[in-house]
Batch of 3 targets.
Target 1
Amino acid sequence: MSLLVVGTVAFDAIETPFGKTDKIIGGSGTYIALASSYFTKSANLVGVVGDDFLQSDIESFQQHGINTEGLQIKEGEKSFFWAGRYHNDLNTRDTLATELNVLADFDPIIPDAYQDCKYLMLGNLTPEVQQTVLNRLKQRPELVMLDTMNFWMTEPFLPSLKEVVKQVDVLSINDEEARMLSGEYSLVKAARAILKMGPSYIIIKKGEHGALLFSDEQVFFAPALPLEEVFDPTGAGDTFAGGFIGYLAQTQDSSFNNMKRAVIYGSAMASFCVEKFGPQRLINLSQEEVKERVQEFIDLVQFEIDYA
């Protein structure tokens, strides 16, 4: 089953307490596509870059089986660039620079070869761009997943965001964003309020404290894997989303029970992401490493109780 990933493909400059890099590939589309590629070999990418994006960078996608026909290259223009510095706790960061460049007037073109997608992952972009993608698909995918951020939950973007949220099956946001979108502090109440906006499922990411999956009637919690070292949290949420929807596309099963498994696979991929700068850890993973990491999650939460 084909997967369509729409998101940013960019350059980042990242500084953490453990080091810094002046220029590394980033963007929501990058992390989502790379993470999903470990589960499905039919991932199609839509995004935009400038001519400063190297052919070798594009080839790194293709080597993962990611179709880049939908990756626009704007001659004479620069790729989207973001620079940030993380604090010692790695949960807070300062944005040092944001240069939209080619992203300022991004018009997502969906190639004909992408039109039969069964799974759609809308990475963090303006609600208008996300809506354009939905409008340009000739038929609705079997499952649509959306990731967004707090910036789009403010005026004048909020009405457009709510229109997009109405049309998706799965919404993936963090705990701060869930509270902001719903106006509720309790994450249970927040999830209930957001589910009434349209999605059938909501994932609330809590960073180092795991992730929650909600439907109208069920709740599932997956812890984050305790890691000895967290090097760079950039892109962890997008990597989670890529692992999640990649697993769904591989198994072709969108039931709540299978989504619980997908949360574990997404969490496993995110745990790899934070071990190196940017997406470096996602480039050369082996399937055996992925299996072993998933087993670590299983061992973390598996227990028996004797009621006798």
Note: DSSP finds ten helices and 13 strands in the chain.
Target 2
Amino acid sequence: MDPQYFKSHTMCWGTLGTVRPFPSFRPQRDVVVIHEALVKKDAGTLVRILTNRNNAQRQEIAKTFKATTQQDLVAGMKKVLSGDVETLMLQLMMLPLQHEAHRLQQAIAGLGTDEETLLEILCTRSSKQVRDISAVYKELYKKDLEKDVKGETSGDFAKLVVALMNKGEVAGVVQTDIETLAASLNAKKTDAAPWIDILTSRDLNHLNKVLLGLERESGQMVIPALEKRFSGDIRLGLSVLVQCIKNPDVYLAKRLTGMKAPLVHGIMVSHSEEDLLCIRVAFLKLAGTSLYTTLQKHFKGDHLQALLAICRSED
């Protein structure tokens, strides 16, 4: 990690991200060092510089590199890097919305759909963010995200995912919503429709009151109740949605505990400038050890150094 990272008095210490603007940023200076590293195939230097710049600065480096060398930085990185570290570093070079669109495309491409990654993004992003991601998806892949998702899902799960892509904030009465969901749980055959309707159309403050009230009145926790009454993809979908309504940091921390490289990359890159500090705190409480230490047990080499730089420090 570059020691200069911690020496600035202008850093955004109030943010909940771990990757912040690099002090005294000089893109031309970085370009010279990066160009030398590409010639020498020095992956370590590429990792050190690019993981210690925020996304806006990385974009400026790529622009300056192109203007200075007439070469594409990402193309040059592909020649030097390989494996997991290449995948991670290329994700870091994407614009944030491009990265989310890329993750969604990967989740629905090929054989089988990665339902949980699809849910993770749609459940943890605001309605505006989802609209912006959808627009970028169309720009990148020349396809409509909602149509692609519909083509890869079915039944109540498809209805849930489409509702998540069109989230609104319809006014509701807390007690009425509690009674509606309680009636659904008590029916002989639980209907997913009221759950989809209410959980995707109210603001978070309202929904947390509804879930708390439902648990008090029914005497049972919502997630186990849902998992008992539903099956298949809709059970997963409603469970993830409720977890994200209650505490998205805890949900994302749980996802990270599996320590699968693609998942670790996706979450850490997506949240590095937003709220990775919160996810780190949740991870420590959940796993009993810090994210920083856990990464060291599962990864190695330049790949590990890149992940540690994004994680930033021990808890």
Note: The chain has four domains: 3-81, 97-155, 174-246, 249-311.
Target 3
Amino acid sequence: MNTSVRNSGRLLAAALRALLVLTVVCGVLYPLAVTGVAQVLFPGKANGSEVTSDGEVVGSDLIGQTYRLPPEKGDEAAADETPKADLRWFQPRPSNGLGVNSVNTQYSLILSGATNRSGDNAELIGWVKEAKAAAVADNSTADHRVEPSDVPADAVTSSGSGLDPHISPAYAELQIHRVAEKNALDVRRVEKLVADHTDGRILGFIGEPRVNVLRLNIALKELIQK
């Protein structure tokens, strides 16, 4: 009986020592080491890839955000609807599938995701057609007509997360004439702005060319203020 108790005691003590050592190594030393390395080698990414404008943090390179008009005062019906896009700014990819997302209208981190509908789903096809028609109407100006064939796929569909911070150069170019008109800017200046903020493929062959909408709109704001 005494031997059994002593053996149980030794096993319990060994287990407690193992728990203490693993807690210190895995719960303290390892996180501190990883955090330290990240802060030294990749401080921006380690801190959320924050983007600043006028000395204030306005977002992240990794998370898209909307550019919408506030509901009109006194309009209770409008307050319950998804706010309309503020067409002075470059618009991101649709969230949660297509253009309008009644659940996650402000890209809240509580919810993200795509529609999970198949490509031949009738509802999805209807949404895409509506989003394409809206893209044509929104981006056509007095001296520039957008054709349905000009609308790229990322203008009417979301990414897998619905929070994509980038758009394709084709979608950015689609919006140039509208942004120039809304802000009384020369089209060529806006074209150069888009070109300057178009990132190529990583290492020249990974991924696709892309435009970060937040950084592009910050640059647009600076151009307007000049």
Note: The first strand starts at residue 50 and ends at 53.
